[in-house]
Amino acid sequence: MKYHYRNTISISVAYLFLCLFITYVSSQSLIRQITDDVNTNLKEDVPYVQKHQEISSRHYNVSNSKTVTGMRNRRPSTYSYKIETNVVDKFETRPFTVGGYNWILHVYLNGNTKDGGAGYVSLYVEIDKSGFVDSAHQEVYADLRFYIFNRNERKYFTIQDTDVWRFDAFNTMWGFSKVLPVDTFKDPKNGYLYNGEHCEFGVDVIVPTPFEESETFSISSSSDKYTWTIQKFSTLSKDLYSPVISLGGKKWNILVVPAGSGSGRGKYVSMFLQLSTNQRRGYEYIYVRVKFRVINQSKLSNRESELRNWYGRTYSWGIVDLISFDDLRDSSKGFLVNDALIVEVQLEAISTTKYFP
What we know:
By secondary structure, the protein is mainly beta. Helices cover 14% and strands 43% of the residues. The protein folds into 2 domains: 67-131 and 138-206, Sandwich (Apoptosis, Tumor Necrosis Factor Receptor Associated Protein 2, Chain A); 216-356, Apoptosis, Tumor Necrosis Factor Receptor Associated Protein 2, Chain A, CATH 2.60.210. The protein starts with a helix and ends with a strand.
């Protein structure tokens, strides 16, 4: 009976301690909640100064191989932030708008130790995720370039990454933990601090929009050719144009210049392939690989030259020294038979450009 009584007392005491412990934990939670609420409503005397937030290393994931640094004359185009005191080492700007989103520049004069930036100036950009329409799935890609003004050189030290940065509801802040060594930055002889404690930072935030226009360029092979027999060739005194022909889905004319053109004048027969009007858009360039031939009527070797060129502002290309007058006059060569000359154009490749829309 005494044994049972002692067990009952032990259980009661244990229960009492349990109740006291629960009461203590609940009161501490309430105190923390009230304290957090009060701290949330507190405003700092110095505007745009960040004193409590630390950026963890999960916000930064850039390899040195992707980082590009240098000096440039142009000022930041998105936001500039001048600081006239270095008493405080962490700053954040007011929100500024780019691409329909609000952004904040964060400056750590003595480095963000939470991100391995001890001994360096650290710079970050934060996006206001409240601007996301679908916060769970929306992503915003941005190009970032950070600036530190150098008074000595009247230029800006810049640092950027070769890739774009992906912002979403879980990754709202990106930047560089090691922008510039603090010793370099704070030595007045280097020009980053001037007029005592003055310094200037900046950032370019570029939110690229999806392209609405595009084009696809391709080159396809072709076996199209056109053979043209010119009668009474020796009597021709003017340039001669062929009928309109179709090669590679385009309309063309062959131009034969019996007296020669350019450097071939007076010594060679010249031949050109001319693109007809309305066969290309005003801004379109068409690449062509084509062979010009004079057919040997004695079944010997043809005289052949290849042309590779772009048809754009220039609509006519050809060979100025296709065949010499001496070879034409020599009947044993077999090119001019019964005063007939046979020429041929064979298209081997032509480009196509598709435009969207």
